[in-house]
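Pasting as-is:
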Amino acid sequence: MLNMRRADIEAGLGTAAFWLGKAEEALQQSPRLTPHHTSSHALVFRLDPPALGLEYTHYLKVFPRRTLKDRFKEVFRGTHAQRVFRGNRLLRDLGFLVPRIKAMGALKSGVWAPASFLMESGLDGVPLPVYLEAYTLSHSHSLTVKRDLLKRLALLINRMHKRGVVHGDLHGGNLLICDRSQGQRAPRIALLDTLRTRYCRRRRTRWILEDLRQLNQVLPPVVSWSERLAFLQGYLPGSPLEGVEVRALIDKLVRMSEERLARKGRSLKERWDPGKKGKASRFDLTR
């Protein structure tokens, strides 16, 4: 069932063969596993202990090769699992917090074949939008904590973009707020789903804007207009967009969201107080 020629593993517990065995055991379960999450390119299965004798939660991601276009892309870019692995390793080598990939391979037979897959360890945390909404509703000093978190997020995205790396799918669900580890004063921010993560050598400004557009579009309503401006003010110094007027930038991001959603027959819901917007100055961000 599994093609082990592409087995790989980062430094960690166990061996590639061990984790490939666990993945095969999970995929051959009867009745079949029910996906914890599905997307246009992947089926994600959550394996909680004591399933398969695991001590910690793991995620098994299966990437079915659905079309001839997928096959064509794999010739030049590698399988989806390989691309996730490369993006994950890129961010880890730069010091970012990402899930640890235990093994990857290819399915040659079975209900999801042909497909690539990988298994990664879970991180203990909460998606950014959920965290912000829950903290705002339940903590009396949430305003200071929330703004500190957004400031640290701005510095994290700034550091990634300065290194020439774009995430490619930077929505709130792919930003995990993790529990404090020993010696830390604040929770860490992890980056998930690295399928589109890469060094950006061409059209760099466009892809950076896409990262910022995705993040700005999906932040929950509890993030005010002024806090969004403060986030961008914290992001811009030293970034590839340094020198851009912050109101021009957020105006551009809003227009990008509206245009993208309009192509899908949808509209961008108003999430900010229009009285605070003012008149944004213009700046050519397409250069």
